[in-house]
Structures are given as C-alpha cells and as structure tokens.
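Here is the promised in-class demo. Please do not try to memorize the tokens; focus on the logic of going from shape to residues.
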C-alpha cells in the first residue's frame, strides 16, 4: 500500500515546493523522509529581519545552524539580511562570525543582500562565489576593502546603497570584469557619484538593460540623458530630477526597448494642478521613441495634484501598453482617475493615494479598468495633516463590487483579498483580510518583475 511517507524523495520535493514558511516547517516534523524532502526548501533562502534580531540570542539564527551543520550549505541559494542584533549599539560579534562562516561554505550562493552597514565583515567570504549573480549592499568601505570587490565577478545584478568614495573610485576598474554578465546596475544615494564616473563605466557594460541612478545629487537629468547614449538596450530606467541650470542635450539617444520608467522629482514645489516640467519633456521623448512602456512610476518630494494636461499627455502616449502605474505623493482628481482607468485598457496594477472619505467615488472612478486586479494605497509621503481613517471592510467591498476584476487591495498595512466563486454574481463574494507582513524588499523605483 502506497502512503505519503513512502513516496520517493523526488515526488515529495515536488509536493513541498508549494509550501513555505510555517507550513513547510510543520511538514518537516512529520517523519525522517518528510524532513529529508523539506530540507532543500527550508534552507534555500536564509533571511534575518528585525523580528529575529529582537529575539536573538534566545532563538538560533539560520547562520548558526549552517555554521554548525555545513552539509546544509549546499542547499542555500539566497541570503537576505535586513537586521542585525546589537550589543551596546555595536553589531553582535558572534552573529557576524556565524554569518561570515555560513557565507564561506555556501558554494552555490546565487544572491546576497545586506541592507546594513556591515559589509566589511562579509567581503572575504563573498570572494570566489562562481554562482553569485545578485549583490546588494551598503558600500561604506575603506580603500583596501573596496579593492576586494575586484575579486567578485559574474554578477548579473548589482545594487549599491550609500557607498563611500572608495567604492565609487573602484567602479571603473570593477565594471570591465562584469562586462559580459551585468544586466542591471542600481546606484542609490551615492553622494560622490558623478558624471565622469558614469561616463567611464557605462561604455564597458554593453549588455546593460536596467539602469537606476536615484538620490545621487551630482547626477541630474541632464547627465542621465547624455549617458544613455552608451546604453541603447535599456528596458528599465530610473533617475532623480533636480533644480539645475545644466542644459538638456540637444540630441538624445533613443531607448526603443524601454518598458519601465521611474522619475523621482527632488525639485521645488510646483503650483497646484500641475507637474514638474521635465516630466512632460521625458514623456514626450518616450512617445517619440515609440517604446513599449508597460510600467510608469512617478514620485514628488512635495504633494501636488497632477494637472489635466499632464495626465492626458501620458495617457495618450502609452494607454495601449501601460500595465503598471504608481503615483507617489501625487494627487489625482476623480475625473483623471476615471480617464486613466478607461483609456489604459491593459492596466492591471495601480498604486495611488486612495481617498478615505468617499470610497464610492473612487470605486466609480476605477470601474472602467477591466483588467485591473491590484490596487495599492500609497498614502501621503510627507503629510502634515491628520491621517485619514483606515479603509473599512464596507469601503473595500464597495470598490471590489464596482470593479469585479479586482483581486487585491493593499491599504493601511493590510491585504484585502476577494474570494470569488463560479456561479455567484459579481457582488456576491467573500473578503479575506491579513496583515501585510513586510514592505516590498525592493526599492520603490524598481520595475515589477511581471513586465519582463
């Protein structure tokens, strides 16, 4: 008689591929064979966040387990460190040592992310990782430490957050080692990055398809529009615009493959019912390039209601291809929301500030978007006013009833999911609510994975 316990290992691994989190842990406790089948999934990704850091050392970190049982290291593909336990405001030495030892023995490591300023402790361990393709870290390194980056090659995606001048200085020598593999480069809040460095490194990256330079004050829109001449195959572009006297180049190289565009405006407050002038310039360029823009993200430093002319411009330019639209710190009138939802026939995901006092008006505005399945409330980034009350279950039901294709609304730290069943009417559905566990692990300006 065949039972679940005597299924062969390959079958169990295929079954357990659909489990995650606590479910996978529970299954691994059933029997030895279940444990053996669950181990590859259990240790595929090692994460450490604030919740674990608060309870350390009363809980055992996954890195301590790998350090003690190095035979498990062969299963590790991803490491993501978002928090570190501290002792007297300094990183816990034992934890850092366990992390470094674990990274050293993880020969199949494919991605490493550390969003804290502790990269020097891991540099030696990351050397000679042939499978490492994705790397994200804060690059506050000394000159000698920055030189060790030259030993890391074969990367496909590189993200530098707030790097020191030593790391910036080594980029022109590091990038040639990545010229055959690197397709995505993200430089975020790198204060010393300048146009000379970008002019030096981009010609050596012929395969680059994603370039994101955000929060780097010495790199403005004029610099970006000049350097994209070196990256004609870009599919994703994100950058910050500043108040500047630099002249926009007369001739700008086209980006006919561009699918995602993110613009971060760090400019002086604009007048009501308008938008930064450069946004209009940039959207005019994308229209002349005839690029298949599927994702557009716009963020203002100060909340402004976008004007009718601006909304009409980007809707008319990309209504046939736009799938994802995010408007951060941007106000929209009901008429403009309706215009977007009616004309952008491919729109599936919409992120904007949802008005809390008139859910019916918002529901009517999004009703024309026949393919819309996810709405995210982004609120006001710097609101000084009293926060609006959280959306109620009745508000959610009203919106989901008006737009039957809606599957999910993310608002106020909660995820509302519509449970629709065949045979029921569009207004006869259940709603499940769950706490939003964590914010997106990626930067706000990164492209949605689904558009590529």
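The designed amino acids, position by position:
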């Amino acid at each position: 008689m065949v039972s679940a316990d005597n299924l062969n290992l390959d079958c169990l691994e295929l079954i357990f591929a659909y489990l995650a989190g606590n479910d996978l842990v529970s299954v691994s406790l059933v029997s030895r064979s279940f444990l053996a089948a669950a181990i590859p999934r259990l240790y595929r990704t090692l994460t450490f966040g604030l919740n674990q850091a608060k309870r350390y050392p009363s809980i055992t970190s996954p890195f301590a387990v790998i350090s003690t049982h190095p035979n498990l290291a062969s299963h590790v593909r991803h490491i993501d460190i978002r928090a570190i336990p501290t002792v007297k405001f300094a990183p816990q030495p034992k934890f850092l040592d366990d992390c470094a030892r674990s990274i050293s023995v993880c020969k199949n490591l494919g991605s490493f992310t550390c969003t804290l300023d502790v990269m020097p402790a891991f540099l030696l361990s990351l050397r000679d990782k042939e499978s490492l393709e994705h790397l994200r870290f804060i690059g506050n390194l000394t000159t000698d430490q920055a030189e060790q980056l030259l030993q890391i090659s074969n990367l496909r995606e590189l993200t530098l957050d707030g790097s020191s001048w030593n790391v910036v200085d080594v980029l022109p020598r590091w990038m040639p080692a990545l010229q055959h593999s690197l397709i995505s480069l993200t430089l975020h809040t790198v204060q010393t990055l300048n146009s000379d460095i970008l002019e030096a490194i981009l010609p050596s990256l012929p395969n680059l398809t994603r370039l994101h330079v955000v929060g780097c004050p010495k790199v403005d829109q004029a610099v970006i529009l000049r350097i994209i001449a070196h990256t004609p195959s870009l599919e994703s572009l994100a950058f910050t615009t500043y108040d500047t006297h630099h002249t926009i180049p007369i001739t700008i190289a086209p980006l006919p493959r561009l699918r995602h565009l993110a613009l971060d405006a760090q400019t002086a407050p604009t007048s009501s019912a308008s938008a930064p002038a450069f946004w209009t310039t940039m959207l005019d360029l994308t229209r002349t390039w005839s690029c298949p823009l599927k994702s557009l993200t716009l963020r203002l430093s100060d909340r402004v209601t976008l004007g009718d002319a601006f909304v009409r411009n980007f809707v008319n330019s990309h209504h046939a291809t736009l799938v994802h639209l995010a408007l951060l710190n941007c106000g929209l009138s009901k008429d403009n929301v309706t215009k977007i939802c009616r004309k952008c026939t491919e729109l599936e995901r919409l992120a904007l500030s949802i008005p809390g006092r008139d859910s019916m008006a918002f529901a009517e505005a999004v009703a024309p978007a026949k393919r819309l399945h996810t709405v995210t409330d982004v609120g006001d980034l710097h609101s000084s006013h009293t926060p609006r009350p959280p959306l109620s279950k009745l508000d959610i039901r009203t919106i989901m009833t008006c737009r039957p294709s809606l599957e999910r609304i993310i608002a106020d730290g909660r995820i509302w999911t519509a449970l629709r069943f065949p045979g029921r009417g569009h207004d006869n559905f259940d709603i499940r609510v769950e706490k939003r566990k964590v914010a997106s692990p990626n930067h706000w300006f990164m492209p949605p994975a689904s558009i590529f």
